[in-house]
Amino acid sequence: MVKEKLTLHPDRFFSPDPEIRKIARELYVSVKDLPIISPHGHVNPKIFADPAYSFGNPTELFIIPDHYLFRMLYSQGISMESLGVPRIDGGETEKDPKKIWKIFADNFYLYRGTPTGIWLEYELSEVFGIRERLSSETAAEIYDEISKKLKDPKFSPRVLFDRFKIEVLATTDSAADTLEYHKMIKKSGWKGKVIPTFRPDSIMDISRKDWRENVDELSSVSGIDIHNYETFIRALRERREFFKTLGATATDIVSLTPYTAELSKNEIDAIFSSALEGKSTPQDALRFTAFMVMEMARLSIEDGLVMQLHVGCYRNHNREVFEKFGPDKGCDIPIPLEFTKNLQPLLNKYGNNPRLTLIVFTLDEANYSRELAVLAGHYPAMKIGPAWWFHDSINGMTRYREQVTETAGLYNTTGFVDDTRAFLSIPSRHDLARRVDANWIAGLQARHIITNTDAKEMIKDTAYRLAKKAYKL
């Protein structure tokens, strides 16, 4: 195969229609250099705590930690062991980073037309200055070029943070996290704004095998002896306040479904006591989580933290992979959902309260126009989270805008979140989102649905202002 130049077309992702493309190009240029607001993601704060932190080699940076990458390779029969993904059961995995990189390069064609491929080529071209496309023939050369640059202080996380024009980056942290790395960042005097996000799902699901262990950890870090539901809520309230001292503006609530339910004091006390004794039932677990989602809304009204609700993902679907490699290994699958009845208890109690910001995410696109847009277009507290996870793609983000805007309007949405563990992919993800939104807005202008003035304001909102306002940043 002949080596091919890596060139990113300036009009990529825009419509082939010349009128729409011209407008989209102008809109994109007006926002392409705006600062990045990254209000929801999973970057490890450890990389910013140490000014001398190194990403290691290209394989450790790109492949081993990124389930977006090895998920596709695994689907084609390439074992995760051969890709160096660590096993939790003591099994052996490939240790030679160059051999792993070669497998990746040999199969890079698998990412054609996917957002992962788009992000990767942006990173290679714009972050590392690679000028040839990754392939079997260029694998070794590109590996060596990236390795050399990763040793340069210019490629340290803190320097790249500034180079990427990141205004704020939010991490995701468990309720019992001591936030040591966030403390180190704050004490270092570095000006980069990296803030935590409070995520309590490890203690909201009493069916988890490690639930009691997680509660004990929460008790330890909060300094509150958790022996009943009242002390449990006190501990959660204390942790939320602690997160706020280190800059947190939001929580991240995760549940399989959006089911919410109001329970009496006697009911919740009894369920919690049974859980402490290891005697809870599956029905108890369902009701407990449903009530805890309600409680998180109540606490957000008290302390002002934005409440994100991420639902609709059946996690760790592949049991063999989960047992060998653990969670978050690309085995999470969307499920269909119902929102109108499930969210009614929460929205009836708190949805009219202007002090609550509830951002609801879904992996079930069928709900956009049927339920979510209608709910967010009515309840003052509710906003629709952006196209998430499997849908932060060209078509996914376009479908989202087309299905949501006519009913909810643009201003009941919240901009873009990159939702990534891969720090170097952040600018590529935001660039894609800005281009997709520019193209969608250009289509509205070309059809005379909005004016040019409207379009110029809307693109700034989608690229920057909506997320900044919704997440109180």
Summarize the structure in short:
With 473 residues, this protein is α/β, with parallel strands linked by helices. It is 48% helix and 8% strand. The protein folds into two domains: 18-50 and 163-470, Metal-dependent hydrolases (TIM Barrel); 54-155, uronate isomerase, domain 2, chain A.
Main beta sheet strand tally, sense and closure:
4 strands, parallel
Q: Give the helix tally.
A: 20
| CATH-defined fold name of the largest domain | TIM Barrel
Poorly predicted residue ranges: none
Summed up, the domain count is: 2
Q: How many E-type strands?
A: 11
The strand line-up of the biggest sheet is 6-7-10-11
Mean pLDDT: 97
CATH superfamily of the largest domain: Metal-dependent hydrolases
**How is the quaternary structure best described?**
single chain
Q: What is the first-to-last residue Cα distance?
A: 49 Å
CATH class of the largest domain: Alpha Beta
- Identify the overall geometry: globular
Question: Beta-strand percentage?
Answer: 5-15%
CATH architecture of the largest domain: Alpha-Beta Barrel
